[in-house]
From TrEMBL:
<dbReference type="GO" id="GO:0006298">
    <property type="term" value="P:mismatch repair"/>
</dbReference>
<keyword id="KW-0238">DNA-binding</keyword>
<protein>
    <recommendedName>
        <fullName>DNA mismatch repair proteins mutS family domain-containing protein</fullName>
    </recommendedName>
</protein>
<dbReference type="GO" id="GO:0030983">
    <property type="term" value="F:mismatched DNA binding"/>
</dbReference>
<dbReference type="GO" id="GO:0140664">
    <property type="term" value="F:ATP-dependent DNA damage sensor activity"/>
</dbReference>
<dbReference type="GO" id="GO:0005634">
    <property type="term" value="C:nucleus"/>
</dbReference>
<feature type="domain" description="DNA mismatch repair proteins mutS family">
    <location>
        <begin position="707"/>
        <end position="723"/>
    </location>
</feature>
<keyword id="KW-0547">Nucleotide-binding</keyword>
<dbReference type="Pfam" id="PF00488">
    <property type="entry name" value="MutS_V"/>
</dbReference>
<dbReference type="InterPro" id="IPR017261">
    <property type="entry name" value="DNA_mismatch_repair_MutS/MSH"/>
</dbReference>
<keyword id="KW-0067">ATP-binding</keyword>
<dbReference type="GO" id="GO:0005524">
    <property type="term" value="F:ATP binding"/>
</dbReference>
<dbReference type="InterPro" id="IPR000432">
    <property type="entry name" value="DNA_mismatch_repair_MutS_C"/>
</dbReference>
<comment type="similarity">
    <text>Belongs to the DNA mismatch repair MutS family.</text>
</comment>
<dbReference type="GO" id="GO:0051026">
    <property type="term" value="P:chiasma assembly"/>
</dbReference>
<dbReference type="InterPro" id="IPR007696">
    <property type="entry name" value="DNA_mismatch_repair_MutS_core"/>
</dbReference>
<dbReference type="InterPro" id="IPR036187">
    <property type="entry name" value="DNA_mismatch_repair_MutS_sf"/>
</dbReference>
Length: 868
């Protein structure tokens, strides 16, 4: 029998044996490995392994470290601050050449990839990067590797203070209360910007800041505050001109491969609709929210928790990478075909057994993993291998399937195989602790054999001891107590057992008396200590050493494991897309770089689920034609649904999903802006109309020729002339861009709006068709070219159930040319007359300064006098 010098040799040389996976209800599979020897581990050659696998992040002095500050001779062009918390990345950077700040609103960036962070660093190419010293080690590693162009160095970098990778990173070692969201928000609100009007008062300044910075974005606000605090201290050294910080403009970053969508647009389009728990005690607890009727809720057919997380990431980060989108669309198309349904079902059966391994790996690295954690990791990898085998057979149909098949590397096979070879899952479940299989370690097996024989040995030793004991002792037993070893236990034969000295016996050492039993250390017990020793502790120590070595074996292969689970999650999302597409008759969109959107028989993905007969509509924007649609029509005719429908179809195309239409050709977009829904809050100190203006301001400042702007009834929060003027001015601004005009969809009840706009081929006027019959309105929900002259408000009010009396009075007011008067047919009731008389008495008392008490004018419900 060969013995290895270390457990790593065991893992490298161990071949696949006859031991099969014992996960319940799992099918077994054959694994192929190199090597033809079965090596038994000898614990005599095992050295204790270190359990601390954490990285050491260098600590710097308080505030900004002078040791790391830039030298005076080194000119810095771009200074960037990044902050990551709870999975959301925020950033801000300052360009010295034009004194402008660029901010990145919070976006989801998932550990351990941090793809958005890497994309951001690659796009900005900063000269210096700031981050907080309290950031997670993995985040710092990813940031360091991104700065130095070593994107694949995750989990392999050991940081030291003199590490070259840290030369461009500033670690701010600041007290938490000095660098948190609230303090940074107050700091930003207290700043004065170079492009801010000098005449602004405090309220105007607040509105100005809110119109340029979304202060609800926590990570971005902290990054902005961190950046400004640093620049105020070191900018004179950077610029060599000793001028104070002056920010001339604030721009918003659009990461090159992502479509920028703000939170208001997500809410307005009902992409997410979280519902909080009704109980105040559970309202802020983790997992207390549920998804209401939303696009995410409809599309969430994922079978795994990792898939659900990945689906949310995809919804929060729509891509404009045409290659990535088409990879997803190819996979969706494969899964939608009827002849592939049995393949999809097999994939789903395996996917639902793959769990999110982030928390599991964290527990394993801390050596705190339960046996269920180990079982989950093994089951996830085992089923990932099965998924890879299925994808391998069909990899020619989709790049995503090919990636999934290629992700099953020898490392994945080895980790899965060795976990099964080492861990006895059945025995571990019974003992509820990590248990090593028989045949792994020679000494461990001998200890277990010895431990199994201990009860029989103890019985025989007890019989021998009983023969040597005095005749008044009728029974005895041998027990084992940790630290004390094996002891002879005899029931007390006299007294109450309070004094151990009363129970001395020749050649026996009294240890203690408890529960009416006297415990002795005898020569035979001492011999048992030498021969048997602490078998349980020895077994536990060896199993712990084997577990730690297995953890290290997994750790060096962690990147492959994470990649596999991520691809399984992506596949789960794609299958979810295909299920929705098949159920609702979606089609594959065609992505184009040409500035053109054409949707044939488009439908609203949520509205069509709520009604029986949804009326589809045709949409065309761009090309050589118009880029702006102005839609009028009666109230409740479907204008808002149509606007959201076009935006949602474009959005779905950018996450790689099929779309609800007969045919669709979608231009690749940079941004989707909206002014649809006003989310009011007392904390903003802004009225509904000011919030509308803020949303419109973002659209005006941040749109590109490849952006989409959706505006629903802008200007209704103020007077008609003011709202009309602002809307017309905003649309004229877009039209004046000519060929760089974004895609603009507008609905309005300002029927005079077209007369205020210049004649341009970029503008197309349309309305929602309807019929009127017997003073009733019939909505056709079909879009047509032209304009409507009236919103038919009164007919819509009647259809909504408003009383006929109110409608008649509204008609009178609407047709009145002079000043408004009271309705002559208004009947004064007897009760109303009594109240009038009571008030007349009160007025007389006040006007005449009488000394009568208020009781003299007491209301008398039966007084019918003085009807005049």
């Amino acid at each position: 029998m060969e013995t290895s010098s270390s457990l790593f040799n065991f893992f490298e040389n161990l071949s696949s044996s006859d031991i099969e996976p014992d996960i319940s209800n799992e099918e077994t599979t054959d694994f192929s490995f190199h090597g033809d020897k079965k090596t038994i581990i000898s614990s005599e050659n095992i050295e204790r392994c270190e359990t601390d696998l954490s990285r050491t992040v260098p600590q710097f002095p308080n505030e900004f470290s002078d040791n790391n500050s830039c030298s005076v001779e080194e000119h810095i062009e771009v200074v960037m601050a990044v902050y990551w918390k709870r999975g959301k990345l925020g950033a801000a950077y300052y360009t010295c050449s034009d004194s402008q700040v660029h901010v990145l609103n919070d976006i989801v960036d998932v550990h351990p990839d941090f793809n958005n962070l890497k994309t951001l660093v690659s796009q900005v190419k900063p000269s210096q990067v700031l981050t907080c010293s309290g950031m997670a080690d993995t985040f710092v590693q990813a940031l360091s590797s991104a700065i130095n162009g070593k994107m694949d160095s995750f989990n392999e970098t050991s940081f030291e203070k003199e590490d070259e990778q840290l030369k461009k990173i500033f670690f701010m070692s600041v007290r938490k209360r000095d660098l948190n969201y609230d303090s940074c928000k107050r700091y930003i609100l207290g700043m004065r910007f170079g492009f801010e009007p000098d005449t602004t008062n405090e309220d105007d300044h607040l509105l100005f800041v809110n119109s340029h910075i979304d202060l609800s974005q926590e990570s971005m606000v902290v990054s902005f505050g961190m950046l400004v605090k640093y620049l105020e201290k070191y900018l004179p050294q950077i610029n060599l001109n000793h001028e104070p910080l002056r920010i001339m403009f604030i721009n918003h970053i659009s990461i090159c491969n992502l479509v920028s969508i703000d939170e208001a647009t997500y809410k307005a389009l009902q992409i997410f609709n979280p519902r909080v728990h009704p109980s105040a005690f559970k309202r802020n607890a983790a997992g207390s929210t549920k998804e209401g009727l939303s696009l995410f809720g409809v599309f969430n057919r994922c079978k795994s928790s990792a898939g659900i997380r990945r689906l949310r990431e995809m919804f929060l980060n729509p891509s404009k990478d045409e290659k990535q989108i088409n990879e997803r669309l190819d996979a969706v198309e494969f899964c939608c075909k009827p002849q592939h349904q049995h393949i999809v079902q097999n994939l789903m059966d395996c996917i639902k057994k793959v769990e999110s391994i982030t928390g599991i790996l964290a527990n394993i690295y801390r050596t705190r993993a339960s046996i269920s954690n180990w079982r989950s990791l093994y089951s996830s990898l085992y089923n990932a291998i099965l998924i890879g085998d299925i994808c391998q057979k069909h990899s020619s149909h989709s790049k995503l399937l090919e990636k999934m098949a290629n992700s099953i590397t020898p490392n994945i096979h080895e980790v899965t195989h060795y976990m099964n070879q080492v861990i006895d899952f059945e025995e571990s479940s019974l003992k509820n602790q990590f248990t090593v299989r028989s045949g792994v370690d020679r000494k461990l097996d001998l200890l277990r054999e010895t431990y199994a024989q201990i009860p029989e040995v103890l019985v025989k030793v007890a019989e021998l001891e009983l023969e040597d004991l005095p005749s008044f002792v009728q029974q005895c037993s041998i027990i084992y107590i940790t630290e004390l070893g094996y002891l002879l236990s005899i029931p007390v034969w006299k007294g109450d057992g309070s004094d151990a000295a009363d129970y001395t016996l020749p050649n026996f050492e009294v240890k203690f008396v408890v529960n009416n039993f006297v415990h002795y250390k005898t020569p035979r017990c001492s011999e048992l200590d030498e021969v048997l020793g602490d078998s349980v502790a020895s077994i536990s120590n060896i199993e712990s050493q084997i577990m730690i070595t297995l953890i290290q074996f997994i750790h060096v292969r962690i990147s492959d494991i994470v990649k596999v689970v991520k691809l399984v999650a992506e596949l789960d999302c794609v299958i979810s897309f295909s299920i929705i597409a098949s159920e609702n008759n979606y089609v594959r969109p065609k992505l184009t770089k040409e500035r053109k959107i054409e949707i044939v028989q488009g439908r609203h993905p949520l509205q069509e689920l709520c009604i029986d007969n949804f009326v589809p509509n045709y949409t065309f924007l761009g090309g050589d034609g118009h880029f702006m649609k102005i839609i009028t029509g009666p109230n409740a005719s479907g204008k808002s649904v149509y606007l959201k429908q076009v935006a949602l179809i474009a959005y779905l195309a950018h996450i790689g999903s099929f779309v609800p239409a007969q045919n669709a050709e979608i231009s690749i977009l940079d941004h989707i802006h909206s002014r649809i829904q006003t989310v009011e809050s007392v904390s903003t100190r802004m009225s509904a109309f000011l919030l509308d203006l803020k949303q419109m301001s973002h659209a005006l400042y941040n749109t590109t020729p490849n952006s989409m702007v959706v505006v629903d009834e802008f200007g209704k929060g103020t007077t008609e002339i003011d709202g009309l003027s602002l809307l017309a001015a905003s649309l004229i601004h877009f039209v004046e861009r000519k060929d760089k005009c974004p895609f603009v969809l507008v609905s309005t009840h300002f029927h005079s709006l077209p007369t205020l706009l210049p004649e341009s081929r970029l503008i197309k006027l349309q309305y929602m068709d309807y019929l009127t019959e017997n003073d009733e309105i019939i909505y056709l929900h079909k879009i047509k070219d032209g304009v409507t002259g009236s919103s038919l408000t009164l007919l819509a009010a009647r259809a909504a159930g408003l009383s006929e009396e109110a409608i008649k009075r509204a008609i009178e007011i609407q047709s009145s040319k002079g000043p408004l008067t009271c309705n002559p047919q208004l009947q004064i009731t007897k009760h109303m007359m009594k109240e009038i008389n009571y008030m007349k008495k009160i007025f007389k008392i006040v006007l005449n300064n009488e000394d009568n008490s208020a009781d003299s004018a007491e209301y008398d419900g039966d007084d019918d006098s003085d009807q005049g």
